[in-house]
Design a protein that fits this description.
Structural class of chain A: mainly beta
Radius of gyration of chain A: 14 Å
Largest interface: A-B, 22 and 27 residues
Number of helices of chain A: 0
Helix content of chain B: under 10%
Oligomer: heterodimer
Number of helices of chain B: 0
Shape of chain B: globular
Number of strands of chain B: 10
Strand content of chain B: over 45%
Largest sheet of chain A: 7 strands, mixed
Distance between the termini of chain B: 37 Å
Number of strands of chain A: 11
Order of helices and strands of chain A: EEEEEEEEEEE
Order of helices and strands of chain B: EEEEEEEEEE
Chain lengths: 121, 107
């Protein structure tokens, strides 16, 4: 079965860095776009970033552009998110999610359980 | 920037029907998908496309779209349907956008 497992979360000071990972199994990782979605404590979901199936295209939410970098290694079935220049408002649970698109219909059909990032001094 | 607007909260009596709406310009040209999130858990896809359900999602969940408004309907709400529900779609400004979420309370 499809499994997505995030890791790398923790407590970091403002201005610091962190690297999140998402390990995928149970499907052909190299044919799917992959995303990071985050959720601040008590708040709603916020889309963060996407990496195309082959890693050749990335896109970011305006709130993280220039600070976060998404990447993937299809040989290891993993996706990563490098978080730099962290701010208090980056605190939250970070989920990785698989995107499935058929013709023009897209959805996030599988999610990991999330990893908690806390930015605090 | 574009956005998707949802009512913050709705309530429904056990066994009755509730409709949750999601409004936004991106829905005129992109299909919505809907996610259920119970407290402390990851989101789960419940509806996508015109009205498609992943395997394992009960058929009491259904979806529709008209103009710039997508709707998720729960027909015969059960206690286990109490959760937060989020809509999302592709967007021309940021590739994806989420609605603010609707908390569904089953009375």
């Amino acid at each position: 079965q499809v499994q997505l497992v995030e890791s790398g979360g923790g407590v970091v000071q403002p201005g610091g860095s962190l690297r999140l990972s998402c390990a995928a199994s149970g499907f052909t990782f190299s044919v799917y776009g992959m995303h990071w979605v985050r959720q601040a404590p008590g708040k709603g979901l916020e889309w963060v970033a996407v990496v195309a199936f082959d890693g050749n295209r990335q896109d970011y939410a305006a709130s993280v552009k220039g600070r976060f970098t998404i990447s993937r290694d299809n040989s290891k079935n993993t996706m990563s998110l490098q978080l730099n220049s962290l701010r208090a408002e980056d605190t939250g649970v970070y989920y990785c999610a698989r995107e499935t698109t058929v013709t023009t219909v897209s959805r996030f059909d599988n999610w990991g359980q999330g990893t908690l990032v806390t930015v605090s001094s | 920037s574009s956005e998707l607007t949802q009512d913050p909260a709705v309530s429904v009596a056990l066994g009755q029907t509730v409709r949750i709406t999601c409004e936004g310009d991106s829905l005129r040209s992109n299909s919505a998908s809907w996610y259920q999130q119970r407290p402390g858990q990851a989101p789960v896809l419940v509806i996508y496309g015109k009205n498609d359900r992943p395997s394992g999602i009960p058929d009491r969940f259904s979806g529709s779209t008209s103009g710039n408004t997508a709707s998720l309907t729960i027909t015969g709400a059960q206690a286990e349907d109490e959760a937060d529900y989020y809509c999302t779609s592709r967007d021309g400004y940021a590739p994806w956008v989420f609605g603010g979420g609707t908390k569904v309370t089953v009375l």
